[in-house]
Design a protein that fits this description.
Chain lengths: ~375, ~300
């Protein structure tokens, strides 16, 4: 094993053990703190570490420099949370009079339903699930009340409207916050058939009855589908999203009946394969307490062994952030394969070939379009 | 230990291998580079800067390096990297030095949200700080350079960094980038100022870096209490005018000009309010540097009474 490989494993272990329990951080040498901060930033879990340490009363005893980075992460998160909550408030105002169930998804749901994954987590935008036949009315009303359709090229617009599970994002003119409106959890073109009807029926209202969140099992399954099918070839699979799944499993796992209904619900929605992978990796990386019979019950959802072994390896590689000073070719390959697989599941082969070649063309052209540092307005960051 | 304690060769090796660990005020930076031209400039311009303790945490890991892969054969370029990621368009290799300096600013502005970051130059005298909040092009770097060569200590030419715990300003006396005409103005005003080479045709025009006086760099860990806000504006041939500004107006000018006022929310409101109450605020229009320096000296000595 080369030094780069052993160093990579060491810093990945460092990150995972910090996420499993902040107690391990008490006696950590400064050089490891340096690496941990970089790894945690890459995996977007700085805020999570801050929150864990604050809960255990350990913030006061960590090195001052580390505490400053964690404090900075916490300030940004608090600010984003304010923006998201306010955006939902404005949405309700804008949609007054339109009788439509608004199901909050992902971070927006965790935040407003006060669920554990919201702790120390940064949210980009507001995600909603609404019945497909109401999208027109909602979009029209939002555009009347200050949001606008973001400028995208005709290819992307068609991509969203014809094939996808969401419409192009709407952005508010003054606040700049984006809203993603979904009508299903997966693209229309996906191999995994996901009819959204039963999701609406099972959704749970929040304190404000105009807002709902997915039922516990559906919320876990959506987090997994999002993790495995909405990848980015540069970023890989987001460890942060698997941590959400871990949190949701720990939280909802306390409810009687949750574990028994999880497998059957996954099969009913056609999501048993993502559930299989998700539970395996959550247990492996975060030691999530998952009942043995739930895992056994999903054995038949796994692919046959060579594929299973390969997928396990690829997912592991794509989930864990690399050592910032020792990039790994294998991890790059794994991220690409996982990305192509995600697209393979999202659309049929002909469409996939067309779409990926279009994206490749954009990447090729976009090489020179990277942001110019000297022209950047640092206040917009 | 300071950068100047390393030989040119040792410095190049440091930059190319584990990285050069610099201390810029409150931040430790690890800088890597495989560019010879960069190492030569760093040796010259960073000479008096302290090296951070090897065991300490580095706040930012940055690099300015030749791109990987086939592109390096086509054109000599330099890419700014942070934590192994290269988020920005490449520069020609001649502009590697200013690119790294801009990159470091980007790191501070996008990551140091544990501090309130005013977009402001700052200088200090007798423990009291004078801040110059202004947008680019208002002449704050030029004025600040003139002051730090006239008995004031440099805090920063770009960031007014306020610590939420005690409202004190943290110094970060980095090189001051002068643009275009300002370079000659300063050469004439203080011929003894140490100014690096001019980088022609960068995306901000011609840029040259002034090295702050040793004293400012040596005292980089000494915070200062804000005492004056001066909103400067250089106007060609304008007579010198210095006018007090009402606090309400000064508040808005400081808050709207900060990098992360909205990120810090209530903390930012409290800090700016406290600063505005404890500071006198002025607007300054000037065309001649010596007049501006004199009038600011007067304000500061009037405060001594």
């Amino acid at each position: 094993m080369t030094r780069a490989v052993s160093e990579t494993r060491r810093v990945q272990r460092l990150l995972l053990s910090a996420l499993r329990g902040p107690e391990t951080l008490q006696s950590m040498p400064l050089s490891d703190w340096d690496l941990l901060l970089r790894m945690a930033r890459r995996a977007r879990v700085l805020g999570r570490l801050e929150s864990d340490l604050a809960r255990s009363g350990l913030l006061g005893i960590i090195p001052t420099r580390a505490a400053a980075h964690l404090r900075a992460a916490r300030n940004v998160i608090a600010h984003r949370n304010t923006l998201i909550s306010w955006e939902v408030n404005r949405l309700l105002w804008a949609l007054k009079g339109i009788d439509v169930p608004l199901i909050l998804l992902k971070g927006t749901a965790y935040l407003l339903a006060e669920l554990p994954p919201a702790r120390g987590r940064i949210f980009a935008d507001v995600d909603l699930l609404v019945p497909e036949d109401r999208i027109g009315a909602i979009e029209e009303r939002l555009v009347e009340r200050g949001w606008f359709k973001t400028q995208i090229d005709p290819y992307d617009d068609r991509y969203y409207r014809v094939w996808m599970h969401e419409i192009p994002p709407l952005r508010h003119r003054e606040r700049g916050t984006e809203i993603d409106i979904h009508h299903r959890l997966l693209p229309r073109t996906s191999h995994l058939k996901s009819e959204p009807g039963s999701l609406f029926a099972a959704a749970r209202p929040l304190a404000d009855p105009r807002l709902k969140v997915l039922a516990p099992t559906d919320m876990v399954l959506h987090a997994l589908v999002h993790l495995f099918l909405e990848g980015d070839p540069d970023e890989g699979l987001r460890l942060r999203d698997l941590l959400d799944v871990h949190d949701l499993l720990c939280h909802h796992g306390e409810d009687p009946g949750f574990w028994h209904s999880l497998g059957p619900r996954a099969r009913a929605l056609g999501f048993e394969r993502p559930l299989y992978y998700g539970l395996q990796h959550a247990q492996r990386l975060f030691e999530t307490p998952i009942p043995a019979d739930v895992l056994r019950g999903l054995d038949d959802a796994a692919p046959f062994w060579p594929v299973r072994k390969l997928m396990c390896r690829l997912i592991h590689l794509a989930l864990l952030p690399e050592h910032p000073d020792h990039p790994s070719r294998w991890a790059t390959v794994a991220r690409w394969l996982i990305y192509v697989r995600a697209h393979w599941l999202r659309m049929p082969p002909g469409l996939l070939a067309r779409h990926l070649s279009h994206k490749a063309w954009l990447r090729f052209r976009g090489y020179r379009k990277r942001v110019d540092l000297a022209q950047l307005d640092l206040k917009q960051q | 230990m300071i950068v100047g304690d390393l030989s040119r060769r040792e410095l190049g090796k440091c930059l190319a291998e584990g990285g050069l660990k610099l201390q810029f005020g409150p931040f430790n930076l690890t800088v890597r580079s495989n560019l010879d031209s960069f190492a030569a400039l760093a040796h010259q311009l960073y000479e008096p800067y302290p090296l951070a303790d090897a065991a300490e945490i580095s706040d930012f890991h940055v690099e300015i390096s030749a791109p990987r892969g086939p592109r390096r054969l086509i054109r000599s370029q330099a890419c700014f990297g942070v934590d192994g990621q290269f988020p920005f368009a490449p520069y020609t290799v001649e502009h590697a030095f200013p690119a790294l300096e801009w990159g470091i600013n980007w790191c501070v502005a996008t990551r140091a949200h544990h501090l309130l970051l005013l977009h402001s130059a700052g200088v200090e005298r007798n423990g009291r700080a004078m801040l110059f909040p202004a947008s680019p092009g208002y002449g704050k770097s030029t004025l600040c350079t003139a002051l730090v060569h006239s008995g004031w200590r440099l805090l920063s030419d770009e960031f007014g960094m306020v610590k939420p715990e005690d409202g004190l300003l943290l110094p970060m006396p980095r090189l001051i980038p002068l643009k275009n005409e300002s370079i000659d103005v300063i050469r004439e005003f203080r011929p003894e100022a140490i100014i690096g080479p001019s980088f022609l045709g960068t995306r901000k025009g011609t840029v040259a870096h002034v090295r702050p006086p040793q004293e400012s760099i040596r005292r980089a860990q000494e915070p200062a209490r804000p005492r004056w806000f001066v909103f400067p504006r250089w106007v060609a041939n304008a007579p010198l005018t210095l006018e007090p500004i009402p606090k309400s107006q000064a508040f808005l000018m400081v808050a709207t000009n900060a990098f992360n006022y909205d990120v810090l929310d209530e903390i930012a409101f409290r800090l700016v309010t406290e600063m505005i109450f404890s500071c006198d605020s002025y607007s300054l229009i000037y065309s001649k540097l010596d007049e501006a320096v004199n009038v600011l000296d007067e304000i500061s000595s009037a405060g001594d009474d």
